[in-house]
Amino acid sequence: MRVFAAALTPFFIAFASPALAQAPDHSAHQQEEQQGDPQQPRAHRPTPPAQGAHQPGEEAADPHAGHDMSGTQQADPHAGHDMPAMTMPDVQTSADNPGRPPETPPPAVASGGPVHAADLYFDPSVMAAARQQLRAENGAMRTGAIMIDELEAAFADDHDGYAWDAQAWYGGDINRVWIKTEGEGVIDEEIEDAELQLLYSRAVAPYWDVQTGVRQVYTPDADRTDLVVGVQGLAPYWFEVNAAAFLSTEGELRARAEAEYDLRLTQRLILQPSVEVNLSAEDIPEMEIGAGVTNIELGARLRYEFTRRFAPYVGVEWSAATGDTRDIIQTAGGDAEETRFLVGVRAWF
C-alpha cells in the first residue's frame, strides 16, 4: 500500500494545483485592512465609493450606452403599403341650391295610397270626427276675452269726472268679433260723449288685424251712426297702435289714431305713455267739431300689476282742442284745454 500511495501522489498534486491557483487568497487583504496605513489616522481614511456613483470630474455615463435600441421603435403599420389617392365623389349642384345635389321628386307610388291611411284599419266616420277635434284644438279653437284698459276717475280744476275704455273679442286666430266702447262724463251730470263699436276683425299679418263694422256715437246734442274701417296691431318696438276711419250716415268723414307703449320699470311696475289724435274732413257745428285736426290727448299712467289681470294705476292726461274746433269751443264758452289727474284700474277676464 505504501508503494501504491507513493506512486499516486504525483498525480494528485498535478490535478489539484490549477484549482488552488484560481482560488483568491483574502487573508492578506483582510489583514492589511485591519492594520491600515500606519501613516494615516483611521478617522480620515477615504471611504470607497458606492457602486455606480460618479466621481468628481467624471461625466455621467449613458445608462443605455452599448444597448441595441432598434427593437424599441414602433414600426409604421402602413410602411411598404401602396395607399391610393383619396378622391371626392362627383356632386352635381343645382343652380338654385349650390353645393348640394339636386333633389328628385318622390316616386309616383308614394302618392298613390289613400289620403288618410288610418281609414284602412279604423271606421272612417270615427277617424273623421277625430280629425275635426284635432283641428279644433290646434289652431281652430274659439276663445274670448274682456279687457278694461281704463276705468278711472278724473280730477280737474273746475270739475271731477270719469272715463272708461274697454273692449271684448271672441273667435279664433284669424277671424274674430270685437266690441269696443269708450266715453267720459262729469260726476252728477250727463254723459258728455260715448260710443259703441261692433267690428269684424281678420288677421292679415303677424300682430296686425284689419277691422270693419259699425259705430254708434252719442252726445247730448247729436248722435251719429258710422261705418268703420281700421287696423289694430303691434308696431315695431312694441307700440300698440289702433287707427280707424269713420264715415257717418250724414256723409261726414272723421278719423282717429291712438298709440301707447308699456315701459316696464320692474316686473310689476309699468309706465304707459299714450297719445291720441282726432281728425275731421269737415265742420260739424252741432258736435262742436271743426275741419282738420280736432284735438290731441297726451297721457301717462303708472300701474302696479298685483297680477296680470288686475292693476290699479295713477296718471295724468292733457287734452287740447286745435284749429277750428278750438275756435268753436271757445266761442261757445267752453274750455279748449284741460289737464286731469287720474286714478283708475286696469283689468281683463
CATH topology of one domain, by name, is Porin
What string gives the helices and strands in order?
A: HHHEEEEEEEEEEEEHE
C-alpha Rg (nearest Å):
54 Å
Main-sheet strand order equals 1-2-3-4-5-6-7-8-10-11-12-13
Low-pLDDT stretches: 1-8, 10-61
Cα-to-Cα separation, first versus last residue:
143 Å
CATH superfamily of one domain: monomeric porin ompg
Principal-axes shape call:
elongated
Portion in helices: 10-25%
CATH top level of one domain is Mainly Beta
Number of helix segments?
Answer: 4
- Major β-sheet annotation: 12 strands, antiparallel, barrel
Question: Which CATH-level-2 architecture of one domain?
Answer: Beta Barrel
Strand coverage percent: 35-45%
Mean residue pLDDT: 81
Give the beta-strand count. Answer: 13
Secondary structural class: alpha+beta
